[in-house]
Amino acid sequence: MKMLIMGAPGSGKGTQADALTGILGVPAISTGAMLRSAIAAQTETGKKAQQYIAEGKLVPDDVMIDLVLDRLNEKDCEGGYMLDGFPRTLAQAEAMDKAGIEVDLVVVMEASEETIMRRLSGRRICSCGATYHTFFKPSSKGEFCEVCGKRLEIREDDKPETIKKRLKIYYSQTAPVVEYYRKKGILITVESERGVDEVTREVLKALGRG
Ligand code: AMP
Predict the structure, then answer these.
(1) How many whole angstroms from 9 Cα to the centroid of ligand 1?
(2) Which of the 8 DSSP states describes residue 196?
(3) What distance in Å separates the CA atoms of residue 117 and residue 81, rounded to the nearest whole number?
């Protein structure tokens, strides 16, 4: 099954993608995580993306489309996947169609702006890819990662003024993509204000797996 998980920054899409893919047995492909590791490794893509991400802007479509289409051709994607963070523009959605990728289901996470701000301000990440939250999902090792022991970091684009810019971009550029899939009749919306497990159960029910 080919699924997309969409929603504003802080709507909980990454958390749900991790929970759902564990249960469904397909890989979670997060474009944000791919870009952050490309930046850490200073690859060509990482160098191109760095400034856009730090400023809360979208990375150009041509860079993203190449990155994602290459990744979806890898072997672990043969049995399906959950794509988190792509497409974020109509041009990206159209590029998927053009590449012959038929999306089965789009899950849209909805949360109020107040919840989004609260979630993003407590978010902590590790360079190994693990994610935490000071309130909702604290690391048992305090300031350090449970998986690899490194010191946790605050994402550069989680600063309040950058968060506001990212939200604005979501409503102007990504909300039309949500409408694009709504018209295709393959979209479900999930209200994500509740606990993580409850939201996961609701999505599984919508998938007929509840
Ligand atoms: P995320 O972790 O999904 O919030 O993504 C972090 C940042 O990576 C975004 O604010 C964008 O700068 C960039 N990014 C991730 N996915 C995309 C995409 N599909 N198109 C453009 N930029 C993206």
Answers:
(1) 9
(2) H
(3) 28
Choice from 34, 36, 58, 125 to test ligand 1 binding pocket (greatest atom count within 8 A of CB): 58
Q: Report the CATH fold assignment for 2-112+173-206.
A: Rossmann fold (3.40.50)
Pocket of ligand 1 (CB under 6 A): 9, 31-32, 35, 52-53, 56-59, 64, 85-86, 88, 92, 157, 166
| Cα(92) to centroid(ligand 1), Å | 12
Q: How far apart are CA 70 and CA 183, in angstroms?
A: 27
What are 21-66's pLDDT values in tens digits?
Answer: 989 999 999 999 999 999 999 999 999 999 999 999 999 999 999 9
Whole-prediction pTM: 0.88
Break the chain into its structural domains and give their ranges.
2-112+173-206
What DSSP element (H or E) covers 82? strand 81-84
Q: Which of 111, 99, 83 is CA-nearest to residue 21? A: 83
Each residue of 123-139: pLDDT tens digit?
999 989 898 999 888 99
In b/e form, how buried is each residue of 74-83, taking b as 16+ CB within 10 angstroms? eeeeeeebbb
174-201 b/e (C-beta count within 10 Å ≥ 16 → b):
beebbebbeeeeebeebebeeeeeebbe
Output the CA 210–ligand 1 centroid distance in Å: 30
Ligand 1: nearest atom to the Cα of 35: 8
